[in-house]
Write a structure and sequence with these properties.
heterodimer; A: Aspartate Aminotransferase, domain 1; Aspartate Aminotransferase, domain 2; seven-stranded mixed sheet; three-stranded antiparallel sheet; 12 strands; 13% strand; B: 170 residues; alpha+beta
Chain lengths: 391, 170
């Protein structure tokens, strides 16, 4: 078998060797607790604050407005629950989209059980939320709008700036889950009119176990973890300094490489999309052809089931993922694909291939040769091949 | 989680090189179960012949399946299990035997083995009723159960089924 080809960068990324090197001293030599008064503690504290600055730089803000968490899931939980708890006096209504990551969907559902009102905005066939829908959904009692910046599944990039402007006009806090876009496309929280923003380290070549939440100065928010009062009292827990140092290094690298790498990946992405649609009959692109992350491709194929495709690809050394029900723990197809109007059987045939720093053109060529054969063979086994157009 | 890890080596082997797949010309019986909306569709074809003792046996069997790794592997395994068995023996193949032959299935995929057993019993039912032969009570009950389940799903996904039928006719 050929060397494995990893095309699941949206799930997680390998840690950049430069990141790992930056982290190592903080395990054994500079291991202090940021809360300690002695020199070990102060050394760790300094590394933490320098890291905060690097993370802030990548989204055009000040370090005081950044807190580190244990994951993007935690950041999103804090954003929703923390805002809900702190602004109960003002209202009890929250607006999200119908294509959020499960950690937003589930947090909103939990808040709904606690008596909050949740509006889940629809999306069009490309996965876009309409800014006008946001405007119409905002009520007197609305305290927060949370819309994902770029979809983890279909890569669609939302008109965040416009949505943010509307929220600002209406005096409603605006949060965006930028896990997939952070480090991949330029982000400026001021230009985008965002009050809270979530990011994750392991999706951009940093280590797992660290997330980030930007909280604009003046935003009223309550912590959900109580204890030693770290991170301005918003995230009690001993600070995970090695991971944060790694995350910051990944931010520093991203800032330098974002433009060139974005252009390189966009070209490979477009080559893959064009190749798949040309070579495989009965294939369709999910998401928007242009307004999508530089590293995201997502397709659905008529009469082929996604899990079978993923395993066949894996047997040929290619790592991919699917929104098919058969591969989910709930046996339900991807809520994102269904929200864009795909039918169950269409979502079953979905395949996501996400590119990254170590994706080469030869990898794309390999997939473009392997995938048509896999699909042809699976259709051969399938009862639905009467249609000549696949021959 | 790597999906490969959750399937046994046997499952992957059957999935990679399934036995007895493809359409059968002039089958004696056909069993069609599952539905595209749910993600798994199995069509099982049988040809019935006689062994030396003049007993009716499954002389040939083929399958066509749309579905996940488990659906394809269970389809393949049931054709191996049923081939050359007498009708009476083939009727008794249950999901446990299928799962055992695959060295186990992830719990969430057990329904695929049920589907495969249903496809076979439906194919036998189809054969017996076409030949106007006596259908054992057990098989009749099973057929009714499968039909009932089909109706429940059809009711649930009315609109989608219509589309599916349109595609079948093509």
């Amino acid at each position: 078998m050929k060397k494995p080809i990893y095309l699941d960068y949206a799930a997680t990324t390998p840690t950049d060797p430069r990141v790992l090197r930056a982290m190592l001293p903080y395990f054994t030599k500079k291991f202090g607790n940021t809360m300690s008064l002695h020199s070990f503690g102060q050394e760790a504290k300094q590394a933490l604050e320098e890291s905060r600055e690097k993370a802030a730089n990548l989204i055009g803000t000040k370090p005081e407005e950044i807190i580190f968490t244990g994951s993007a899931t935690e950041s999103n939980n804090l954003a929703l629950k923390g805002i809900a708890l702190a602004n109960k006096e003002k209202g009890n209504h929250i607006i999200i989209s119908s294509i959020e990551h499960p950690c937003i969907m589930e947090s909103a559902e939990w808040l709904e059980k606690q008596g909050f009102g949740i509006t889940r905005l629809p999306v069009d066939r490309y996965g876009f939320v309409s800014p006008e829908d946001v405007r119409k959904a905002i009520r007197k009692k609305t305290i927060l709008v949370s819309i994902i910046h770029a979809s983890n599944e279909i890569g669609t990039i939302q008109p965040i700036e416009k949505i943010g402007k509307i929220c600002r006009e209406k005096g409603v806090y605006f949060h965006t889950d930028a896990v997939q876009s952070f480090g991949k496309i330029p982000i400026n929280v001021n230009k985008m009119n965002v009050d809270l923003l979530t990011a994750s380290s392991h999706k951009m070549y940093g280590p797992k176990g660290v997330g980030m939440l930007f909280i604009r100065k003046g935003v009223k928010i309550e912590p959900i973890l109580h204890g030693g009062g770290q991170e301005s009292g918003l995230r009690s827990s001993t600070v995970n300094v090695p991971a944060i140092v790694g995350f910051a290094k990944a931010c520093e690298i991203a800032e330098k490489e974002i433009k060139k790498e974005g252009e390189r990946l966009s070209k490979l992405r477009d080559k893959l999309i064009k190749g798949v649609l040309q070579k495989i009959k009965g294939s369709h692109l999910n998401g928007h052809p242009k307004d999508r992350l530089p590293n995201n491709t997502n397709f659905w194929f008529e009469f082929v089931e996604g899990e079978s495709m993923v395993i066949q690809l894996d047997l040929l050394g290619v790592a991919a993922s699917t929104g098919s029900a058969c591969s989910s723990v709930k046996l339900e197809p991807s809520h994102v694909l269904l929200a864009t109007g795909l039918k169950h059987e269409q979502a079953h045939g979905s395949l996501r291939l996400t590119l990254g720093k170590w994706t080469k053109e030869s990898d794309i060529n390999y997939v473009l040769n392997a995938l048509p054969v896999i699909i042809k063979n699976l259709r051969k086994i399938s009862p639905f091949k009467g249609d000549k157009k696949y021959e | 989680m790597s999906k490969t890890d959750s399937y046994t080596k046997k499952v992957i082997k059957y999935f990679k090189k399934p036995h007895n797949y493809g359409r059968m010309k002039n089958p004696d019986g056909v069993g069609k179960v599952g539905n595209v909306v749910c993600g798994d569709v199995m069509w099982l074809y049988i040809k019935v012949g006689k062994d030396k003792k003049e007993r009716e046996i499954i002389k040939d069997i083929k399958f066509e399946t749309f579905g996940c790794v488990a659906a394809i592997a269970t389809s393949s395994v049931i054709t191996d299990l049923a081939k050359r068995k007498t009708i009476g023996e083939a009727m008794k193949i249950e999901r446990d035997e299928i799962v055992k032959s695959l060295g186990g299935l992830p719990p969430i995929k057990i329904h695929c083995s049920v589907l495969a057993a249903s496809a076979l019993s439906e194919a036998i039912y189809d054969y017996l009723s076409k030949k106007k032969k006596e259908i054992p009570k057990e098989l009749q009950e099973r057929h009714q159960r499968i039909e009932k389940e089909k109706k429940i799903i059809e009711e649930k996904y009315k609109e989608w089924i219509k589309l599916e039928e349109k595609i079948h006719k093509k």
